[in-house]
Write a structure and sequence with these properties.
With 87 residues, this protein is of the alpha+beta class. The chain has a domain of 53 residues. Helices cover 11% and strands 25% of the residues. Bound molecules: zinc ion.
């Protein structure tokens, strides 16, 4: 099995216009494979790679951002004592 290619961005398919992932080949050049219309656009050099990267919206990671432990700050509230009977 070939290693899964890293998703580096998303762009509209030049053929059908659907938004498809842009992946990076093992040689570092971009490749776009459209699962909607079976179009394939593969960069074989830095010029084509640059054009594809200009068209795409880069993604930092293909792992969805899911920050853990970042909760909204709870406003401090005065503690009410059980023995506070000042009514
Ligand atoms: Zn397409």
């Amino acid at each position: 099995m070939a290693k899964a290619m890293k998703i580096i961005g998303r762009m509209k398919c030049t053929c059908c216009g659907e938004v498809v992932p842009v992946k990076e080949q093992s040689n570092g050049l971009a490749i776009v494979t459209c699962n909607f219309c079976d179009n394939k656009m593969q960069a074989f050099g830095k010029v084509a790679d640059g054009h594809i990267r200009l068209k795409m919206n880069p993604v930092v990671s293909d792992i969805p951002a899911n920050p853990v432990g970042v909760a909204a700050p709870v406003p401090a509230q005065p503690k009410k004592s059980f023995f506070d009977l000042s009514l």
